Amino acid sequence: MNPAELQAEQEFLQSYDPNKYERPIGVTADIVIFTITSEVLSGSTKCLPKRSLSVLLIKRNGHPEKGKWALPGGFSSADETLLETAQRELYEETGVDNIYLELLKLYDTPGRDKRGWILSAAHVALVNEQYLANRKAADDADDVQLFTIEEVAKLDLAFDHRQIITDAVTYIQKLMLQTTIAREFLPSKFTLAELLQVIQTVVPSYQITKTNFIRKMLLTKKQPIVIPAQNEFSTEFSQRPAQLYQFANSYVPHLSIYVDPSPKT
Fold it and tell me: DSSP class of residue 157?
């Protein structure tokens, strides 16, 4: 930019009136943290634990929507990015820190917030429950809890957080089918039955028999997703010894891992 253009721009900015245009009264960041909870089933027969997809919610202690369950979140300031806002608000309201967050979507439907024109940049993560072990309500939250997706369906949620959670579920379902994130919820060596259960916990619509799933995993020889642990078996969840597997470190995901590509039209 030459001196004349620089001078022209400076004059424009000095005379620029930001009040000339309508603008939001605030921009917030909301955070959707999913995990897979596990519950050991009592009984005489060996079986896999009960796994549930759960989401972290806070109970609001201030107006509007006081007393309702909501996603952690809050207003951004001019000296931080929206990702930094999400990280800060998550820690301030729940005590949860050091979580890798991804931007989900910008929510801007008119009337979504009773306070006025407020936009929200929703962020999402699917993490092992151990990262949520020290959760504790603080700041604008009276309580913080994990709810299964089935329980969330029965709650009266604040703002448009039900829609955000619905969109976030779709996002992590794609993540589960297109990456090896399932390894975050498995030991380093696992049975294929355990892997299938983790996938179906997040993606219930992924219906396949255990036999066909095992066949699909074993037939992927060109670039294997999982490889057998040599001469290692487990009877933890079955009466008969089950082969243990581990993820192939060389695997680089392309499109969907566990399902066949959609046919070309």
Answer: B
- C-alpha closest to that of 66 among 140, 149, 171: 140
∠ CA 77-80-82 to the nearest 5 degrees?
90
**pTM greater than the 0.85 cutoff:** yes
Q: What is the pLDDT of residues 128-171, one digit of tens each?
A: 999 999 999 987 889 999 999 999 999 999 999 999 999 999 99
Q: Where are the domains of the chain?
A: 26-177, 182-247
Whether domain 26-177 has CATH 3.40.50.300: no
Tell me the C-alpha distance between 24 and 44, whole Å: 60
Tell which residue, 189, 201, 173, has the closest CA to residue 247. Answer: 189
Task: With H, G, I as helix, E, B as strand and everything else as coil, classify residue 11.
Answer: helix
Confidence of residue 191 (pLDDT cuts 50, 70, 90): very high
